Amino acid sequence: MEALDSLIYKISRLPGLGPKSARRIAYHLLKNDAEFNKTLGEAIINIKDKVHPCPVCGIYTEHDICSICNDSSRNREFLCIVEETQDVNVIEDSGVYKGLYHVLGGAISILDGIYPENLRFKELDKRIAEGQFTEIIIATNPTDQGDTTAAYIKKLLSKYPNLHFSRIAQGLQAGGDIEFANHRALYQSFKNRLSF
Known about the structure:
The chain is of the alpha/beta class. It is 45% helix and 13% strand. The chain starts with a helix and ends in a 5-residue tail after the last helix.
């Protein structure tokens, strides 16, 4: 079944989905009514036409400027730098932060051919030069690439003397057991320990 095999292959290329999950989804689509499949296909086709990065911060939006950049109640002295828009969604869902964001579009990874010029660093530098930011919160992922990107951000923006830099704390997950922690998480936990 050429059409089914082609669909399974295409679905399996999505992040987080392997061949078994792709097969399960494909068979589910076969069982669905044609109208659902049609609207799903249209949504996939239309996403690239309707959704684009905000020219200010890089968050995906359907508007000229995203809702966060347009929100006058946001604290414009704080800028949280993240790798991807999905990171913004998670932070926003937590309700812990009410400042502005800057999405880089990834992390520096020389081995994967992702260099600083491939990310939104020029836009970041321009925003800092024109903005009124006092604190830069670096919220890159706790990976080697995230650490490299964080170091690059600090070096790039160190020419602005009035900026305070912070990095979100990393380490053991709340409610987790030390027994099951990986070495990197345990290392970060000790490095970022607080006074008690």
